Amino acid sequence: MFIGWLTCIPAVLLPHSPCRSTTANAPANRQMPIASVVSSNVKKKETNMSIDKETCELLIDDYIFQLDEYDEINDRAIWETELSQLLAMNFSIDDFLENLYIQTRSNDGFGTGLFYDFEFFKRDNKFEFVFICRQPNKYWEGQWGLSTLLSTLADVIKDSPDFIIDNNSLDIEDDWKTLEVAFQLDKDFEFKEIILKYSKLLNDLIKRTELILSGAVWRKEYETDEKLFCTEIIFPLLRKMDFIDVRFNHGVREYGKDFTFSEITKFGNLRHFAIQAKAGNLRGNVNSDIDEILGQLDDAFTMPYYEVSANESRNISTFIVAISGHFTENAKDKLIQKIPQHFKGCVYLIDRDKTLELIERFWK
Description:
The chain is α+β, with helices and mostly antiparallel strands. It folds into two domains: 49-213, no CATH class; 221-362, Trna Endonuclease, Chain: A, domain 1. The chain has seven helices and 19 strands. A hairpin with a 4-residue loop joins strand 1 (49-52) and strand 2. Helix 2 (146-158) packs across helix 3 (191-213) and helix 3 (191-213) runs parallel beside helix 7 (352-362). The longest helix has 23 residues, at 191-213. The chain is elongated. Mean pLDDT is 83; it is low at 1-18 and 20-45.
């Protein structure tokens, strides 16, 4: 989603110009120096922050940034900056100014396609971060109505322990629909780490919302209960994808085959598949499920299964590992490296995210 660490641009003194009276997005070509750069070779340091009210400038250590707006009556300052600058910054809760609001924008909505604006500030000795969705209904081309999507998403977020949402967060009465989603921290933070973590969490909730609107509801129990994952998600999903002879072996695996099913190819022949399902994440550590899967690969392909409806034995040509969590990196690497050469291209991995994509596409 984001580019790697940025290097520090030499400090530049900005002209003493007055602040704008209204908030606007920072021009695309605006360049500013970067403060408190983070890298693997630079230790985090404390920052000193202050505001020069006469010049309308924000001072961070030895760097000067032009503020976009300063409200003298409420003593509220707004600094709009490019996302690339913030990705190289860290912030101290002790030194951060109570009246400072930092705002930025992402061209891809931080990977969500909905929440393009983001701001953060300090209140009651806590950082508060806000993802902001402002979408015009006139140009919305989503699968569901914008009001329906945002109101359902708001309900999903209310049940999430990671975010804060209240009755004022959602406004779908006007042509421009708005939803604000917040979270809090009470410690110092690196901006890149925080934005990556919480944008992914938010994107997961959006996928869950789309799943609900598609007619399927992802339950937390799927990540611990393998049979529930199989019977309520995999089995109906395969049917909706128009596979034929879909069989769930009810926990009695035929050489690693929890599911067997087939499809008619464009050549008019039958192609046969098998799925081995697992609940939760899959890791590649010693004595892991990965070793069990690898140990069953040869039998899965060489040992036929019996299809009752056709009264015949069948051999699979594709083996799928479907899990309700995620594959760790070492699990993926271990599978890719240890799959026998003659099976490469015939083994596929499907995790929760891929399952959600399939549900969104086929679960009508």
